[in-house]
């Protein structure tokens, strides 16, 4: 049986884990402009299916074992036994089976299978998410909730989808999938990363503060504050209204849409108008630009 990959938590800085091991950032496979898909992380049980040519039936699997009438994974085996779909022999379809776990979802979420990936055994690679979505549509399967499809902007932008639950009142986090690096077998860095909300993290890490790096970051923050001003943010929000992305009367409910659009527009505007300062901020430019812009936006709209 083909097991699903282990997806690492995204690490953005060097962190100290309490056992003298420093784990560095693992986000190096994500570049601004890469095509990504951000999906809601569903807290159920990983389950998969694969066509068995010997029996001419579709086999069902939990994460670690083949299922049968005695081991059903709370009914997943029975669900698969009743499936009527065409499944190529080289496909292993992975999804999350809705069953009670840490998060209590809406009752309608249980007993459903949320497909999130397909592995091609012949090519030894995962299919692009557009093909996964197409397969689900053609076979009447439920595709996992997609929060964003488009260009990678920043990890702050990815994090803006952390509280957008569609299956209940709480959300474990998101999974960010780099479609541009999907077939890159040379890179040792992960092209799938998850970001988990704080109350679901299994490890609480404490940052190791480097005085020189902190001084560098504070200087960059001071410079960025000089160009990402209240007036610039206000101007850009007005443009979002003019473009029909936001309504004229803004409410706190608009913050999600603002988080999806404002940081990139502010950054692009600063690159155009203040390139020297952007360059001086170096690696901190994108993250600081987004966080400062959103701070001003929250002050304007939420108070």
Describe the structure in your own words.
The protein is of the alpha+beta class. It folds into two domains: 8-200, D-amino Acid Aminotransferase, Chain A, domain 1 (2-Layer Sandwich), CATH 3.30.470.30; 209-301, no CATH class. The chain contains eight helices and 14 strands. The protein has helices spanning 76-81, 129-138, 155-159, 211-227, 230-242, 255-273, 275-281, 285-301; strands spanning 8-9, 15-16, 22-23, 35-41, 45-52, 57-61, 91-97, 113-120, 125-126, 142-143, 146-151, 173-178, 192-196, 206-207. The strands form three sheets. Strands 5, 6, 7, 8, 9 and 10 form a six-stranded mixed sheet that branches. It has a five-stranded mixed sheet with strand order 1-13-12-4-11, with no helix packed on it. Helix 4 (211-227) runs antiparallel to helix 7, helix 4 (211-227) crosses helix 8 (285-301) and helix 5 crosses helix 8. The chain is elongated, with a radius of gyration of 22 Å. The model is unreliable at 16-21 and 202-206 (pLDDT under 50).
């Amino acid at each position: 049986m083909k097991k699903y990959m282990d997806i690492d938590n995204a690490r953005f800085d060097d962190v100290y884990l309490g056992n003298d091991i420093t784990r560095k950032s693992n986000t190096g496979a994500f570049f601004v402009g890469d095509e990504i898909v951000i999906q809601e992380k569903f807290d159920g049980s990983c389950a998969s299916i694969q066509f068995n040519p010997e029996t001419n039936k579709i086999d069902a699997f939990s994460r670690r074992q083949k299922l049968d009438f005695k081991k059903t994974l709370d009914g997943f085996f029975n669900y698969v036994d009743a499936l009527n779909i065409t499944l190529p022999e080289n496909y292993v379809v992975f999804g999350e089976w809705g069953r009670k776990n840490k998060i209590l979802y809406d009752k309608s979420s249980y007993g459903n299978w949320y497909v999130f990936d397909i592995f091609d055994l012949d090519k030894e690679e995962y299919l692009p998410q557009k093909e996964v979505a197409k397969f689900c549509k053609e076979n009447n399967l439920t595709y996992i909730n997609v929060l964003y499809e488009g260009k990678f902007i920043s990890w702050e932008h990815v994090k803006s989808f952390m509280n957008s639950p569609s299956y209940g009142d709480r959300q474990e986090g998101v999974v960010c999938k780099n479609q541009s690096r999907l077939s890159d077998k040379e890179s040792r860095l992960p092209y799938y990363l998850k970001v988990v909300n704080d109350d679901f993290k299994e490890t609480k890490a404490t940052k190791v503060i480097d005085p020189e790096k902190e001084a560098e970051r504070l200087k960059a923050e001071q410079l960025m504050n000089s160009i990402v001003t209240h007036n610039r943010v206000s101007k850009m929000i007005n443009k979002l209204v003019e473009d029909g992305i936001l309504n004229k009367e803004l409410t706190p409910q608009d913050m999600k849409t603002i988080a999806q659009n404002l940081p990139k527009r502010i950054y692009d505007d600063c690159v155009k108008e203040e390139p020297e300062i952007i360059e001086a901020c170096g690696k901190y430019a994108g993250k600081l630009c987004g966080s400062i812009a959103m701070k001003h936006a929250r002050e304007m709209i939420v108070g």
